[in-house]
Amino acid sequence: MYFMQVFGMLPTPYVWISWSMEYLNTNLFGTTARASEFRTILSFTVNIASVLLIYWIHHEPQLKGYLITVALAYINSQNYMGSLFLRQPLSAPNQRLAVQNKQAEFVFQGKHSADKTKQ
Description:
Layout: H1 2-6, H2 13-27, H3 37-58, H4 63-77, H5 92-118
């Protein structure tokens, strides 16, 4: 087992567990892949808790049990995390353009002031 991991045939345990959670989320619960490990773990935990709660409530023959089941299924089908725990994309091209604009303004500002003194 150790030699398989050393030679790259087995991933590290953290990577394997993270991949397994995402695989189960996608293929067992029908959710989409998440963008970060924390979102994958949170989604997997919410899905497991929902399934266990639905299984526990489903034995209750009242209308309340069915309504809670439908509500949990609806919540899990929505994007309840939104942009939580996502990194904001880098805007490197825009930052580069802003720096170039400032440098150009500085250069042309000196030129415009020199043109005014000549007149």
